[in-house]
Request: fold
Amino acid sequence: MPAIEVRDLRKSYADVEAVAGVSFDVAQGECLALLGPNGAGKTTTTEILEGYRKADSGYARVLGVDPSQGDMDWKARLGIVLQADRDLGDLTVNEAVRHFAGYFNNPRDPAEVIHAVGLEEKAGARNSKLSGGQRRRLDVALGIIGSPELLFLDEPTTGFDPAARREFWKLIEKLKTDGATVLLTTHYLDEAEHLADRVAVIARGRIVACDTPAQIGNRAEGTAIVTWIENGTEQRESTARPTAFVNELAARFTGEVPQLAIRRPTLEDTYLSLVAKEDES
Amino acid sequence: MNRSLRLGRLRVGIELKQFFRDRESALFNFMLPMILLVIFASVFAEQLIGFEDVTFAQYFLAGMIASGILYTSFQNLAIAIPMERDDGTLKRLEGLPMPKAAYFLGKTGMVFAAYGAQIVILLVVGVLFYGIDLPSTPYKWFTFAWVSVLGLLSCTLLGLAFSVVPRQGRGASAIVAPIVLVLQFTSGVFFVFTQLPTWMQNFASLFPLKWLTQAMRYVFLPDGAQVVEASGTWDLGMCALVLGGWTIAGFLLALKVFRWSPRGQ
Reply:
């Protein structure tokens, strides 16, 4: 049984269809990244699955349970990291993590969790004094304290510096090794590429592509991009035959082609073209 | 049920910690009666209220204890909960394996504990510095207890219900504080109740604070002082009736209107 099953999920606000027929599965132990522009329906979809909102129609099962009917035992199996919170400012990191362990039957060791998110040095600090990235790591600590089978991460690394982001990725990878399923929402494509087994691109309430980061949008078979400098400006050619093209180019120049580069489309290139295609249609 | 009680107890602890660490809430909801008592009792130290030798300090203490009930319950919750709705506290709790009852038990426990600490300090300050007499009979202590419990319950429930009125956490104190202040002025906290215009007395009689203040006067003033009450008696029966009525109304209202998410979500 998949950890998450979604079929033709729909949800409207006033006359806007925020989620317009979304379907996907997340297997046990898998990490699926939901990518999409702001307002595409990522958060609404996630919040339906977390039990915060009711879908208008469609089918959803999270750990085998209809999320609109989830009871305490079901909630105890989830870890939820919402978008940027500002609560708990008057408590210390230590107090907050210990307190939230109290809601679960089999919590992780609070000291271990604080260590895992790299907040030992801040354990005695008031949460209101934490930097943006530290605060976010506290939210993650509170999301994993109950040893969840399924972890929801909504833009977890917003405000992190690059080093902190890499540390955070290691933490999530470790949770995955321990068997947790992760539904990740992010704006950072390198993050999705690094953490996700599959990515789903969502635009205007619909999933427009869902595949592994390497394969999505025919990325693997797609054209390569060749760039070089000619006549003082950057030239750019998309081609399915980059080797042949560079040969032709080399013949035109005597010696080195200035600033020659060949690259495969990044996940970002692919993502942007998928989203742009959706906007045109 | 067990889970609600266990987590309710867990929440009382964390609620109290946050209540006392938040300087504004500690000052505004907890310290204010002490500060006002010191100011008023010092200014009007020797003044008598017109019955025997009851000092203004003794009269004012009753009003401050009654106000303390309103501060720690209604004012505290009606300001703190809209802020919790805005800053993600309530949303986080909704996602936890926590029965919602545990949240309300936590709030109620916090209110009772804060009020308990408040009256201890008020009485100690009153006795040590302003020569205030403590309740003279066990029956008065008993009345002190049931009036406090009923007052805290009704005003806690009303605070939960009123927490839906402020649209944003930021502006909540600007809406709640004036309501509390008007009730205090019209309920005989700052002035001798019977010296207020009749229409004002009638207005105040609709709400809990007037009855709380009056019952606390029964507890702290000599028995004979009831001749200066509006009806010439302490009216404890009516007090129980009004507070009981507000408790039931507050319960039904809170049950119906309480919101976990901000408006428009």
About this structure: The mean pLDDT of chain B is 92. Chain B is about 70% helix and 0% strand.
